[in-house]
Amino acid sequence: MSDIRVPHDPFEGIDVERKRHNAVRKRRLGRVALYGSAFVFAFVAAFPFLWSGITMFKENQDLYTKANNPFWFNMPPTLEHMKMLFFETNFPTFVLNTMLVGLAVVVITLVIGLPAAYSLARLRMRWGGQMGIAIFLVYLIPPTLLFIPMSRVISTLGLQETLWALILVYPTITIPISVWLLMGFFKGIPMDIEEQAQVDGYSRLGAIVRTVLPLAFPGIVAVIVFAFTLSAHEFIYALSFVKASAVKTLSVGVPTELVRGDVFFWQALQGAAVIVAVPIALVFNLFLDKFIAGFTMGAVKG
Q: Which domain holds residue 129?
């Protein structure tokens, strides 16, 4: 039998090439749209920092003249306002106080929160789940309802006008949410890992330190970031418990020292915001993945 030949379509190769070209063009347009959207959102998010970075170096006349461009320098930049911020106010003291309070609160939160969360998640207690929910509900009570009784406690202990007042009060906010988050992580870690470590010769505490805590590291990072940032930006307790400039934190010291009656030192205010926000943002981005994992995984597993 002779071979039967199918007539060759002369446009078949053209159609394949056209489809391939269209697919490549769609991919390129998709990438352009994606990166373009990302650039727009990034610019919108970063614009307040850019504007603040320009404003902090502006002269007073350049800032208050309506005809001048508010988004760029019309007059030469100046460092007078930064000198005022660092040498005529207690801004460096505010930063130091905020660091001390934040680190102390983080340590207290971890020392109390880790054992509490592990106990509620691991030990077989009938009321463990209810206790975890009750601890989390404490976090939902607004500080505006608690600062009056807290003031009585601080007054009774004689801690007014000291950083210890803030160090004592802030863990009452950070510990409940931290216990709730860490419970979710501990529940998601199989107990077989601890039991195998104990079979290998480790004590219960050694098994926890060497096996459980490394696996719960994203949750621990989330707790550290949460506790420190809350201590840094909390306003009501800091305003109620400390009045002396030497013991103020950033959240209270900057607005009270740089807003004097109806006079706003805008350049110094913007400079303080940029100087504080940029380093925190850089550190936060380094641990962003673990921070998101800490909140999402802990919430789901809990």
A: 89-301
The answer to which of 2-6, 61-65, 75-79 has the lowest mean pLDDT is 2-6
Number of separate domains in the chain: 1
Asked if 161 and 245 count as a contact pair (C-beta separation under 8 A), the reply is no
Residue 280 lies in a domain: yes
**Alpha carbons 51 and 265: distance in angstroms, whole number:** 16
- Say how far residue 87 (Cα) sits from the centre of its chain: 29
Name the pTM for this structure.
0.77
- Structural contact between residues 221 and 152, judged by C-beta atoms closer than 8 angstroms: no
Q: Side chain identity at 59, as an amino acid letter? A: E
DSSP 23-80: HHHHHHHHHHHHHHHHHHHHHHHHHHHHHHHHHTT--HHHHH-TTS-TTS-SS----H
CATH number at residue 139: 1.10.3720.10
**Confidence label for 152 from pLDDT (cuts 50, 70 and 90):** confident
CB neighbours of residue 251 within 10 Å: 20
Q: Are 101 and 238 in contact (CB under 8 A)?
A: no
156 domain-assigned: yes
Position 127 in a domain: yes
- Amino acid residing at 70: P
Collapsed DSSP state (helix, strand, coil) of residue 287: coil
Task: Return the HEC string of 65-119.
Answer: CCCCCCCCCCCCCCCHHHHHHHHCCCHHHHHHHHHHHHHHHHHHHHHHHHHHHHH
Q: Tell me the two tokens of residue 270.
A: 């913007």
Q: What is the DSSP string of 184-202?
A: HHHHHS-HHHHHHHHHTT-
Instruction: Decide if 165 contacts 242 (C-beta within 8 A).
Output: yes
